[in-house]
Specification:
Blueprint: H1 4-23, H2 28-40, H3 42-59, H4 63-87, H5 89-117, E1 129-138, E2 142-146, H6 153-160, E3 166-173, E4 176-180, E5 183-187, E6 190-193, H7 197-200, E7 205-207, E8 219-223, H8 224-231, E9 240-243, H9 250-253, E10 266-274, E11 287-290, E12 311-315, H10 322-343, H11 349-354, E13 358-365, H12 366-369, H13 396-423, H14 425-437, H15 442-479, H16 486-490, H17 493-517, H18 521-526, H19 536-569, E14 579-583, H20 588-598, E15 604-610, E16 623-627, E17 636-644, H21 647-651, E18 655-658, E19 668-669, E20 675-681, H22 682-688, E21 697-700, E22 705-713, E23 728-733, E24 741-746, H23 751-765, E25 772-775, H24 776-783, H25 785-819, H26 821-829, H27 834-868, H28 879-905, H29 909-914
Parallel strand pairs: 6-11, 8-10, 17-23, 20-22
Antiparallel strand pairs: 1-2, 1-12, 1-13, 3-6, 3-12, 4-5, 4-9, 7-10, 8-11, 9-10, 14-24, 14-25, 15-24, 16-17, 16-21, 18-22, 19-20, 20-23, 21-22
Helix pairs in contact: 1-2, 3-4, 4-15, 5-13, 5-15, 5-17, 5-25, 13-17, 13-19, 13-25, 15-17, 19-25, 19-27, 19-28, 20-23, 25-28, 27-28
Length: about 900
């Protein structure tokens, strides 16, 4: 509809056009004739009309009315697009399904990466909080950086550097008994914290006053979950929780320190209830106990500077350089080092410094703690109660791994879209021709096809969001997280995905739109336009790319699954089956009594008591070991454990030289006067350079007490197979010495009845004791949990990527069968069988898969060889595995093509010949 002013504007433009032709030398008649002919072209008029509508209405404040007509025209585009999508239901379903799966996986991976990057970012002062680490060089282990400092450091920092806003301390402990009335609970995680911890971190209370909750000694705040566990429906505020006795030895802290001073046991009063603490933090909080309980910090022992067990955090002013404070702390670190040697005259300061020993303080942003690959993220210690922790840290390699898979799946989805769209181009060629005849411009056709593409990506995005939300619980279980879907909607995930959908729509729709809109209407309507020849090289290239990726994914999946199987089945050097790990019998007489009682059960074969909560598995804790009389720089860092005599039988250790601890004459008193000896593994013997280790006296651990080597055992894989077997020493004692964990080997009888017997026996010895147990093989499996999770995710993602690739091949096979309809009919009339027709349509894909195999298989082989280098022990990739991947890809391609091939070969040749 043209308005009067619009007609006037167009008439003016017609007069200008006539004038231009006349200036070019045309006669007035010719100029009028060609100007009116050009103005009569629909496309030209529409173009000029758009100029009128988008310039003049602005000048005359009629933009709103013009916009209305633009919307009307845009609505027509969408109406046409919806009509075409409904008409081609199968094509639409395949395209939207492929894109939605790719986008859903992208959403899940975006959620995961966003979650990992958000660790500790929720604190109001997140950009001002730094953890103080102790960095330096130890001649026995090399350069190090640890998150553990002295309990006195926080006050020293506050006193010497007034620019620090505040400091706070956190001490992470584990495996302690909590008692409520006559009930006992064994808890694996709890934190001691300064009273101002609520001012540093965003730890909120549902009930209680954060200003006073941890001020008084023997105060505790706990989560609602723990309060319900301990007190049920009762009001927890003011209730008491008994904290179990912490076994402490005065010799650990110096002979002048009374043992009771370091005993934090007793009744703690509940002063507050915590809000659920976010999971995306390097601190996991169930209990906070008052640091002021330890009045011994104020007792005055500067010897506490070598007690490196406390996490120290500082809050700096905004925009203050942490490097500046690090430089200021170096003189302080030097003083602390001097004081250390003054308090330990048996250690030679000159000897240590000559070997290069030093330490200093470094500041780590709290938001980097979880992401750090060099510094442990958790506050773990090896104090007199033998605490260990599981280090919780991010793995950027895992992000790249998942991100790459998601990108591959999304890329295959886009390729699948392009292939399916071009495959349907033949059915729309005549439509394009008719549209051009009636006056459509090429840019209009491109716009129409782009809108169809964007419409499909929009629908795919909506379906992808729904699909991702439905799959998120499964994804969380696979990677052991608790990612909320709201973080995707509230964060940058949704805008990123909308932008991604637009880009995918434009990229995926651009090639088909350009090709379709370029057809000459005369050739199309006369049937001389060879639709299938346009872009054949690109389609073939995309097929090669798709199946190249598919073959690489198959190779990778097979390698990952084989490596996981190798790790599960490799001989670890000890027998891990049917061993129950039990914690909880903290006091030593009870541990020994319990051991003797459970041995009476016919299904109990052997029992061994240990000091550490775990003996097998990844451990950060190690100690320097050296020959008596050798300098400290010749020490070798070794993993270690304290066990009783029966560990050999219980774990099935293989003694290759020396004698059993119970019969060895080399057992000598340790620093507490208890008979002890050392067992070394083969790697430890090599590390110390011992040709005849039995009887050698070694200084092991921080106390430097000499003990004899009584035996050498075959190497055992105490860590995961990612790392080589570490040097290890085992300090063996009679059972009655600082033991707190039991390994119980059972037979093949009824495990449940045996567990019931163990529980009743424990509670008879110590009424109300918390019976906590696990199986050793299950604990070992946890060490491979991350690899297992990644393996499962990779397998699922790979299957989806390969499935989407097969959808693309299916669509392309349909296109080829349609393009060769008449040829197939003629061949059948001349006697070709169904097998001949199927082979005709399949051989091109076999060739493309062969090319993809030649390109992808060596790349995948070298990539997975690099991946296997992260494992000290791994299987070898053979040619058979690569060949299997190629055969699998070929079978998948033939299965994708077979339906269309059989359909074409079984069609009536008369109908095929009449098709065109």
């Amino acid at each position: 509809m043209f308005l009067p002013d619009d007609i006037e504007e167009l008439e003016g433009h017609l007069r200008e056009l006539i004038s231009d032709f006349k200036k070019s030398g045309w006669s007035e008649v010719d100029a009028f004739h060609w100007a009116t002919k050009k103005m009569g072209d629909y496309g030209f008029v529409e173009k000029e009309y758009r100029k009128v509508r988008w310039t003049k209405p602005k000048r005359r404040r009629r933009f709103r009315r013009s916009l209305y007509w633009e919307i009307i025209m845009l609505r027509n585009y969408f109406k046409t697009a919806f009509r075409m999508l409904r008409k081609q239901k199968a094509f639409t379903a395949l395209n939207i399904a492929g894109l939605s799966i790719g986008m859903a996986l992208s959403i899940l991976v975006l959620l995961f990466i966003q979650y990992e990057l958000s660790f500790d970012g929720f604190h109001e002062k997140a950009d001002q909080i730094y953890r103080v680490n102790r960095a330096g060089f130890d001649p026995a282990s090399g350069a190090f950086e640890m998150p553990l400092t002295s309990p006195l450091l926080a006050q020293d920092l506050s006193d010497e550097f007034p620019e620090i806003v505040m400091t706070t301390r956190i001490w992470r402990k584990s495996f302690v008994k909590f008692k409520v009335e006559d009930r006992l609970f064994l808890e694996s995680e709890y934190l001691y914290a300064d009273a101002n911890v609520f001012d540093v971190f965003d730890i909120r209370l549902v009930r209680g006053n954060p200003k006073t909750a941890l001020v008084n000694p023997n105060s505790v705040v706990l989560t609602e979950e723990m309060a319900e566990k301990y007190f049920g429906d009762e009001d927890p505020i003011g209730q008491t929780i008994g904290v179990g006795v912490w076994i402490a030895y005065a010799s650990t802290w110096g002979p002048e320190t009374p043992a009771e001073v370091v005993d934090p046991s007793g009744d703690y009063t509940v002063t507050g209830i915590l809000e659920p603490y976010p999971d995306n933090s390097h601190l996991q909080i169930k209990f906070l106990l008052s640091f002021s309980t330890f009045y011994w910090w104020e007792w005055g022992g500067k010897n506490l500077y070598e007690m490196f067990q406390i996490g120290t955090y500082v809050v700096l002013p905004k925009d203050y350089s942490p490097e500046l404070l690090e430089a200021k702390t170096r003189p302080m670190a030097g003083r602390h080092r001097i004081e250390y040697f003054q308090r330990n005259p048996e250690l030679s300061r000159d000897e240590f410094e000559k070997a290069g020993y030093y330490f200093q303080y470094s500041l780590q942003p709290v938001t980097d703690v979880y992401l750090s690959s060099e510094v442990p993220s958790e506050l773990y210690g090896s104090g007199p109660d033998g605490d260990l922790s599981i280090d919780r840290r991010g793995n950027p390699k895992e992000w790249y791994f998942l991100g790459l898979i998601a990108l591959v799946v999304l890329l295959i989805s886009v390729i699948n879209f392009v292939n399916l769209t071009t495959a349907r181009s033949a059915t729309r060629a005549r439509e394009v021709g008719v549209r051009k005849v009636v006056g459509s411009l090429r840019q209009q056709l491109v716009g129409q096809f782009m809108i169809e593409s964007l419409l499909m990506t929009g629908l795919a995005l909506i379906l992808a969001v729904v699909l991702a939300q439905a799959l998120l619980p499964v994804f969380n279980r696979l990677i052991d997280t608790t990612i909320p879907f709201a973080s995707f909607v509230n964060g940058w995930g949704l805008p990123s995905l909308i932008a991604l959908a637009v880009v995918v729509g434009l990229v995926a729709g651009s090639y088909p739109a350009i090709i379709l809109s370029s057809y000459r209407p005369v050739d199309v309507l006369k049937g001389t336009q060879n639709v299938g020849s346009r872009g054949a090289w690109l389609r073939n290239g995309l097929v090669v790319f798709q199946f190249g990726i598919s073959i690489a994914l198959i190779v990778t999946t097979l390698v990952v699954l084989n490596q996981l199987s190798y790790m599960r089945n490799k001989d670890l050097g000890f027998d891990k089956e049917n061993i129950i790990v039990q914690h909880g019998m903290i006091d030593e007489p009870a541990v020994e009594t319990y051991k003797q009682e459970v041995l009476r059960h016919p299904n109990v074969i052997s029992v061994s008591n240990l000091f550490w909560p775990t003996f097998i598995g990844d451990q950060e804790v190690s100690s320097p070991v050296r020959l008596e009389g050798t300098p400290v720089d010749e020490a070798v860092r070794m993993q270690w454990s304290i066990v009783d005599y029966d560990i050999v039988e219980t774990l099935g250790l293989d003694i290759i030289s020396g004698e059993h601890p119970s019969t060895s004459p080399l057992m000598t008193p340790n620093r507490n006067g208890i008979p002890a000896g050392l067992i070394l593994n083969e790697t430890a013997v090599k590390g110390l350079g011992l040709s005849n280790p039995i009887g050698q006296r070694l200084l092991a651990g921080s106390m430097n007490w000499p003990l004899n080597v009584i035996a050498v055992i075959k190497d055992i894989h105490s860590n995961t197979l990612h790392a080589p077997v570490p040097p290890m020493y085992i300090e063996v004692h009679p059972s009655l010495w600082r033991m707190r964990t039991s390994y119980i080997r059972i037979g093949g009888g009824d495990a449940q009845s045996t567990l019931a017997f163990l529980k009743s026996t424990a509670q008879n010895i110590k009424p109300g004791v918390a019976f906590e147990y696990s199986f050793l093989d299950a604990e070992l499996d946890l060490a491979y949990r991350e690899s297992e999770q990644l393996g499962r995710i990779f397998f699922i993602f790979s299957l989806l990527a390969i499935g989407i690739a097969c959808l693309g091949i299916f669509g392309l096979a349909a296109f080829m069968a349609q393009q060769r309809t008449k040829e197939i009919g003629v061949r059948k009339v001349l006697g070709a069988s169904a097998q001949n027709i199927t082979l005709l349509l399949s051989k091109d894909f076999v060739l493309l898969v062969g090319i993809a195999f030649l390109i992808a298989s060596p790349l995948a082989y070298f990539a997975m060889q690099r991946w296997l280098e992260d494992f000290a022990y791994h299987f070898d990739i053979g040619f058979g595995l690569i060949a299997l991947a190629g055969v699998a890809a070929l079978v998948l391609a033939l299965l994708s093509v077979s339906y269309q091939s059989l359909k074409a070969s079984l069609a009536n040749p008369v109908d095929s010949i009449r098709y065109e």
